[in-house]
Amino acid sequence: MRLLKTLQILPLLGLVTLCANKATATGVPIANPSFESPALANGAFQAGAPTGWTIANSATAVVTWNIGTPYPNLYFDQAPPDGNQVLVLGSNFSQGEIIQYFNATLQPNTTYTLTYWVGTRKDIAAGEYDMQLQAGGDSLAADHLAKPPAGAWVQRTLVFNSGAQSGGQLSIHVIGTGRNYGDGIPGQAMIDNIQLDAGAGVLSLSCPASSALVNTPYSSSLAGSGGKTPYTYSIQGGNLGNLQLNTITGAITGTPLASNVLNFTAQVQDSTSTTASASCSIAVGNLGTSEPRDGAASRPGHRPKRRARCW
Questions:
Q1: Does the CA dihedral 292-297-299-301 come out positive or negative?
Q2: d(CA 179, CA 128)
């Protein structure tokens, strides 16, 4: 499998809001995240898939290693980030690959945060690797950029915002090529303490269409995003005139009867009682003008006064 050469991060969609809130992230359970099983004696190693993980693509260079205390020692100046054991991928140009599937699918409007640690031995060069978060076998985000100094560990973080995407079983796929970064020499990738959190995206609210016409049916909608559905919509200040809000769908409908500027504060609440608000305006004008009339009678030569709009 060819390594991905760029960190893939999907941007959040921007929405104009007055207020937004983020729900607390929850962990996605990972079996054996620090490779402490099978338990090995001090300094021992064992080839094959660690407990809870599966070797991918018939890779041969997969090892669980208890580095051995005390520290510093011949291999590391620092202890592993969590526990005593680590994953070793790749050796002498042979590739190592493991994968773990979760009992969870990709959810919409969710922020996934994948953290892990990478180490470099003092006696063997750092090896090329690729850490991937996948859904349905497709890579959502990937990273291969850590290059710790010899004898040390560094933490890396991947963030993926799903937006409207959903579906596909979530998994983590880790690859080590067994070679050093472009130096033509063998290398090993040392991995430890993989964690995955899934949290609701930022709850946001966008306003409906900002213009309407007198005696013409109006139909637009408040639109919530992020958080945890279902949503409930409400008007917290101002008014909609004779327009009506559907509190379940956010639809605003009706036929305006007079020119006016409708200023109001809308709110969306998600299933966790988190709320977000937005200041909105709908300018109701007469046919042929986008401006509300000032109430003066229509007559030849009369120029209506222009009103400032409040957005």
A1: negative
A2: 6
Instruction: Determine phi and psi for 172, rounding to 5 degrees.
Output: -120, 130
Q: Where are the domains of the chain?
A: 26-200, 204-285
- The whole-angstrom separation of Cα 184 and Cα 66 is 28
For residues 223 and 231, what is the distance between their CA atoms, to the nearest angstrom? 9
- What's the CA gap between 45 and 66, in Å, rounded? 6
- pTM, whole model, 2 decimals? 0.65
Query: Which of these CATH numbers, 3.40.190.10, 3.90.1150.10, 3.40.50.300, 2.60.120.260, describes 26-200?
Result: 2.60.120.260
Distance separating alpha carbons of residues 74 and 71, to the nearest angstrom: 9
CATH level 3 topology of 204-285: Immunoglobulin-like (2.60.40)
DSSP 150: T
Retrieve residue 81's tokens. Answer: 């980030």
pLDDT tens track, the chain, 311 positions: 333 333 333 332 223 333 344 444 578 999 999 999 999 999 999 999 999 999 999 999 999 999 999 999 999 999 999 999 999 999 989 999 999 999 999 998 888 999 999 999 999 999 999 999 999 999 999 999 898 999 999 999 999 988 889 999 999 999 999 998 777 899 999 999 999 999 877 788 999 999 999 999 999 999 998 777 889 999 999 999 999 999 999 999 999 999 999 999 999 998 888 899 999 999 999 976 544 544 443 344 444 443 333 33
What the block records as the tokens of 246 is 């559907």
